[in-house]
From TrEMBL:
Pfam families: CMD
PANTHER family: 4-CARBOXYMUCONOLACTONE DECARBOXYLASE FAMILY PROTEIN (AFU_ORTHOLOGUE AFUA_6G11590), BLL7811 PROTEIN
Coiled-coil features, chain-numbered ranges: none
Source taxon at top rank: Bacteria
Protein name: Carboxymuconolactone decarboxylase family protein
GO terms assigned for molecular function: peroxiredoxin activity
Source organism (scientific name): Streptomyces argyrophylli
Span of domain Carboxymuconolactone decarboxylase-like: 16-95
Amino acid sequence: MDARLDLFASPATGKVFKHFAAAGKAITESSLPAATQELVKIRASQINGCGPCLDMHTKEALAAGETPTRLHLVAAWREATVFSDAERAALELVEQGTRIADAAGGVPDEVWANAAEHYDEEQLAALVVLIAVINAYNRLNVVVRQPAGDYVPGMFA
């Protein structure tokens, strides 16, 4: 399978990716736990059907020490016992933020309040930006049918 468009060869997308990378670096440097960041990226990518992002973020999570069991259970996090209450709040927020068109009123207050019980304002801000950025990456990859499977951890570092 070939991508419809080479996003890495386009000067326009090259400029955009530099800004996305800067946003990603700011999130990475925030106090939002790294494991939570990867879980959020994985869950949004599952919902959006983004193979390249799933390939990247599952491999990065494994390389950082995440367990295969937790990664296998991200899609079924509500039934899984391997996630903390804070991680569960982040996973609910990413689901609501990713499926925003499905909810007439956007992210429900209860979901926000639950996340706010576990994360401070800096972490909440990082979480919101992370949700927006991973959804943007997902959409770019899905639209151009970017193939997945050959990612090597750290290759875009």
